[in-house]
Amino acid sequence: MELLPGFSKPSPSPDTKLECIRYRDRSCCKPGITNTFEENENFQNITIYNICPQKSSLSSACHREFFDELCFFLCSPNIGPWITEATHDAAPEKERFKDVPLCASECNRWWDACKHEFTCYVNWYNDVVRDANGLNICGPGQQCRRYDAIYNSSTNFCETIWDFSFKVTPDDQPCMKFGFDVNKPNPNIDVARRKVGVISACPPFSSVLYFLHFVCVVICILTMW
Q1: In this protein, which residues make up the domain named Folate receptor-like (predicted)?
Q2: Which helix (H) or strand (E) holds 129?
Q3: What residue spans define the domains of the chain?
Q4: What is the pTM (predicted TM-score) of this model?
Q5: Which of 69, 118, 199, 219 could form a disulfide with 52 if both were Cys (CB 3.0 to 4.6 A apart)?
Q6: Is 8 helix (H, G, I), strand (E, B) or coil?
């Protein structure tokens, strides 16, 4: 997935210096991509997470959850089956993922860690207002409120915040985790393989769609092993 020039890789590869330790064996990103978030919760001058004046920084638990989610977004080699063209105006990203099945337990932990933070957006893709330097700001009429005053549930939060990049899924179904144990096999590999199998089994609607499906499946298979 092509995200940031200078930080995205054309294909997954090992990198022992990567800050996102879960993806050191196989990553789609290069070292340094999360540095600005770690330093001041400002992702590459694209997204400031602690945008509201009520708090100077995220809680440590919420910071950790957003860091893990950011690493998943930037570095995971297993989201190929859900990649689509980016259509929002958040600038350098050319591609995004959509409806990635996120385990409900993962969503609940993210929500519990962050529900007392503040924002002036509902959808952090489509509601964003930017200043002359491209930084996100609260625009006219956008009031800072706590997350739990904006989102009515953990599912609403996880699915809406990044414009339906995630689809909350029961844990007993194939679903992704961005906080998995680094000492155990990556559970997301099997989820992606299952999705590739579903895509390849779907009947195409035209020869063009058949070709696109075939290319997608081949790329996903080649980059998963």
Answers
A1: 8-176
A2: strand 129-130
A3: 8-184
A4: 0.85
A5: 118
A6: strand
